[in-house]
Amino acid sequence: MWSPCLWAQYMKLDCGTDFMTLVWTESRSRADPSLFRLGNCFPTSFTARQAVFSVGLDDCNFRRLVTGHQLMYTNDLTYISSPDSHVVPFTHQVACTYERPKDWYPLSYDPVFNTYGQADLVFHIGLMNDDFSGPAESTSFPLGSFIPIMASVEEKTHQPLLLLLEECVAAATPELQPESNLYPIITNKGCLVDSQTSRSKFEPRQKSSEIHLSLQAFRFELGKEVFIHCKLVAWDPVGLDNTKKACHYVQGHGWELLDNPSYANLCDCCDSSCKSRRMRSVASGKLGVAQKAVLGPLTITDVNS
């Protein structure tokens, strides 16, 4: 185990008034800086040897603790490694401590827990504007344009979780019926099958608790109401397998994994069958929670009609 003074050789921490900057310099040549996480946040930037996080203290699942005249924000810097990697996973606590403002008396604060939280997870899914910075201004999308979709999960006191879209289909009704006409979007445990014949893709993650999908508007129920039915899964980031993944198809290249490139072979089953295994619950101290969600109504229009 590394000593605190040795950690200091690798990490530089700058605590601002409401933000922090962390720079981790990695000396091991086989380590991949893109696999570092600060709470549920991905690196703001990274190079071959460094991972940089420039984040607000209200983001990334920072924990806030008030003790006497001090206000402390803590989080965990984690390295997520593949099972066959020579670099073992590790976690290091990060803390920014401030003098508590004299006129600041919170009604409550978030204590530091070393165990998994038991609170209910809250899932969200919505239509976004073109750069995913806010909600969409319209629910009408011309055929061939992009439908930006964001799904997220509020983790509260849970350990950081990776949000995945396990399945999505389009239908003409807010409830699926046996006779419903369906358009498959994501099938086979996280394979964006629509990307095989379109420019649909998963966008790079900013937080593990969010997933962004740029869905190219498809020819389905043109001019009528469309609902997108999805199964969302919040999963342990180190518990990925070929049934817990996010894969999209890149023309001329093949299937690509959105997350950890060390697990690229998890997408190989997208052309066959990705075997399922029994879901285990985070609420019971295990690996994941699933939630069904419906997005819509939205309308796909034919610009030539």
UniProtKB/TrEMBL annotation:
Query: Which key words tag this protein in UniProt?
Result: Disulfide bond
Tell me, what is an example of a GO biological process annotation in this record? binding of sperm to zona pellucida
Gene Ontology CC entries for this record = extracellular matrix
For the keyword Disulfide bond, the answer is: yes
One Pfam family, please name it: Zona_pellucida
ZP domain: residues covered:
14-254
Could you tell me which InterPro entries the record lists for this protein? Answer: ZP-C, ZP-C_dom, ZP_dom
Domain of life of the source = Eukaryota
Q: State what protein this is by name.
A: Zona pellucida glycoprotein 3f, tandem duplicate 1
Originating organism: Seriola lalandi dorsalis
Lineage from the top down? Answer: Eukaryota, Metazoa, Chordata, Craniata, Vertebrata
